[in-house]
Amino acid sequence: MIVNVRCTHCENRFKEEEHVLGQSIPCPSCGLWLKVEAGPVLSGTAMFARAFATEQPKPEPKPDVHHEEKEPSAWRNPAVWIAILAIVAVIIFFLVAVVH
């Protein structure tokens, strides 16, 4: 027999097999665990189930933002440029001193 289940949190409707009666199953949409009990029979092959939440609803997922945390480039640091200029100045000073 097919069991029609409705999630108490997100109102999602889904179908399960009869063997889930008396068990807790997760809602395929929001993941809330629901205890499924027999409800009114629709026909010889289907019934509505009564579902009760067995845990608190999961928080809504945060939007998937792809901001990778990277360390800033060393080339953006002014101290790197000052050090490079100082080395170049020292080299130039010694080259000029050696020539004269």
Structural summary, described in words:
This protein has a domain at 2-53: Rubrerythrin, domain 2 (Single Sheet), CATH 2.20.28. The relative contact order is 0.15. The longest helix has 22 residues, at 78-99. It is rod-shaped. The protein starts with a strand and ends with a helix. 22% of the residues lie in helices and 30% in strands. By secondary structure, it is an alpha+beta fold. It has a five-stranded mixed β-sheet with strand order 2-1-5-4-3, with no helix packed on it. A hairpin with a 6-residue loop joins strand 1 and strand 2 (13-17). It has one helix at 78-99; strands at residues 2-6, 13-17, 24-26, 33-41, 46-53.
Features:
100 residues, alpha+beta, Rubrerythrin, domain 2, 5-stranded mixed beta sheet, 1 helix
Per-chain topology:
Blueprint lengths: L1 E5 L6 E5 L6 E3 L6 E9 L4 E8 L24 H22 L1
Parallel strand pairs: 1-5
Antiparallel strand pairs: 1-2, 3-4, 4-5
In short:
The chain has 100 residues and is an alpha+beta fold. It has a domain at 2-53: Rubrerythrin, domain 2 (Single Sheet).
Sequence of secondary-structure elements: EEEEEH
Strand order across the biggest sheet? 2-1-5-4-3
Helix content: 10-25%
How far apart lie the N and C ends? 102 Å
Indicate the proportion of strand residues.
Answer: 25-35%
The average pLDDT value, as a whole number, equals 82
* CATH class membership of the domain at 2-53: Mainly Beta
What is the overall silhouette? rod-shaped
Decide which structural class fits the backbone.
Answer: alpha+beta
- How does CATH name the architecture of the domain at 2-53? Single Sheet
CATH topology of the domain at 2-53: Rubrerythrin, domain 2
Given as residue ranges, the uncertain stretches (5+ residues, pLDDT < 50) are: none
Count of helix runs: 1
Sheet of most strands: 5 strands, mixed
Number of beta-strand segments:
5
Rg is 34 Å
